[in-house]
Task: structure prediction
Amino acid sequence: MSDSPVSDSTLSASTAPGETASVRARPPRGLGLALLASELAILFRRTRTIAMLAALAAVPILIAVAVRVSSSGSSGRGPAFIDQITQNGLFVGVAGLILCIPLFLPLTVGVAAGDTIAGEASHGTLRYLLVAPAGRVRLLIVKFLGTVAFCIAAPLVVVLAGTVIGAILFPLGNVTLLSGDTVSISESLGRALLMSAYVSVSLIGLSAIGLFISTLTDTPVGAMAATIVISVAAQVVGSLDQLAWLHPWLFSYHWLGVVDMLRQPILWSSFGDNAILQLGYVIVFGALAYSRFVTKSILS
Amino acid sequence: MTGNAGSNAFAPGALAIETHGLTKRFGSHLAVDSVDLAVPRGSVFGFLGPNGAGKTTTIRMLLGLVGATSGSISVLGQPMPASLASVLPRVGALVEGPAFYPFLSGAANLHRLDTADRSVDGATRSDRVAQALDRVGLGHAAGKKVKAYSLGMKQRLGLANALLAPRDLLVLDEPSNGLDPQGTREVRSLIRSLAADGTTVFVSSHLLAEIEQLCSHVAVMSSGRIVSQGTLDAVRDQDVSRIRVVTTDPVGALRVLADFGLEPSVATDESTADGDVRVVLAPVPATDPGHRTSGIQPEAIVAALVAAGVPVRGFTVEESSLEDRFVALTGEGFAIAEGHSVR
Ligand SMILES: Nc1ncnc2c1ncn2[C@@H]1O[C@H](COP(=O)(O)OP(=O)(O)O)[C@@H](O)[C@H]1O
Ligand SMILES: [Mg+2]
Result:
């Protein structure tokens, strides 16, 4: 038995060319966007994400099929926009989107945002990412951007799936807006995308909350559930007249303002107010997540 | 006790890891207590201690995963965690077992973790991943999802992750956990080859055999404290023998041995046929490395035992292996202070 650690080994030492006894310090190369690319690839290739997006796509498809099957006897019941679907397939995406705003979309965003840090912690990969070293701030930003990407994708999937199924099952034509004006098919498609963008922005505040909660725990399911509960609670509070003073501060305050994108002219102030409110949430909960995460003990 | 007077003389400051008074407290529990580590560059440093000794917690602090309660750390000559961003790209690590995304393949996992390191060249990523996988013998399983990996394969993948880029220091926390004997041999051989390249290897283990065959230096940790540190030979020589007394009166034997300034304990893992018969062990410290029994005469101990009326069934002076040293240092068995009763 030899005490020498450097005795010749049977396993060949495949030293890389240029590798010497001392590896020179390697400065960072650029921003390291590869981590963001890898985050997006993992997020959107994950079965869970695909399943959530598929479920969201199913909402307008179900609406369209249900309306088509029962449309022979036209009724005056149900929301007005559902009735309009039969006249114009372009409404399917919009109807699906509005239907998903209170529950389905926040639910999927809660899952994506709650999983960010806690999911890595529960896999144990958080310690390996940080030892790589990813950098805590950089990792937090990448995780947030991943969630933002999901917030963009989720409403878009609803609108696109709805528009496609609407075009298949119903006639297409010029769209009559809430204001009574009529716009062309191409402009109404633009409006649908604008509504999707509005909803994406609406969900970003909730993402920031979810990211913060995700830094508090090593249990992703807990972080997801807490984020979803908060989104439901905000809407409950938002429906209580006694708490009217609080309403403008709720991240869900402008959620249904998405219909302002259907007015002529477009009510851009609605978009702006919503964006400012969401930005406020990003700043506050981003700062909380930052202060928590940079000092967090990684014991998972 | 810090025996740096080994074969190699290291220039001052040529330490890959250096800690002073490193302490970590979890609530009221001291997981790591005033640890002073000195890991020479180029060494294979065994970090030895039973489960719960505080090895992983120490490693987490070295790598900036957990903040120290107090004390200072320097890794590759730079203060941690202040210089984390410039130090960690030169450090490969396996901490508290491997951890991967179960839904990704082995290669995809390494690819992912490699993107986290901003200092590496993205263009060589696929090649480096493939090389690292080949180096640990996982080339054939590169495309398999990690959830289908055995524990041993995950352990190898963890090693591959530590080898994704050229490193100055490898910190390997129990690298042979879950490996079969063949795998353990391969890991040992891999560590030797890495050390031959000049990489400093800091390897923790609760298994002595691993350390003894591999390391140039060791530190022994017990209950959060470093109880011995230095070159393998220096640590092994710190006590060269131990006294083993077989008796029906362990308390009396403990008292007599303690009177000689020894630190006896009752062995818990040695069962005797007769339930009343216990084995009392006492490591004999070498005050003078030339003399195996450090001036204490075994004959005098036997006489004292007999004089004290302790029934002696067996008395031996055993040469210690590092294993005995480990047992002695980490206090397996019931150590008894001031000769009070066993239970
Ligand atoms: N997150 C934690 N909270 C409280 N105590 C902990 C935590 N992690 C480890 N410990 C305690 O710290 C001690 C050292 O643990 P550890 O460093 O994992 O030991 P080792 O790696 O040597 O087996 C143990 O007593 C363990 O119970
Ligand atoms: Mg451990």
The pocket of adenosine-5'-diphosphate (ligand 1) is lined by residues A 299; B 26, 29, 31, 49, 51-57 (CB under 6 Å). Chain B touches chain A through 66 residues (CB under 8 Å).
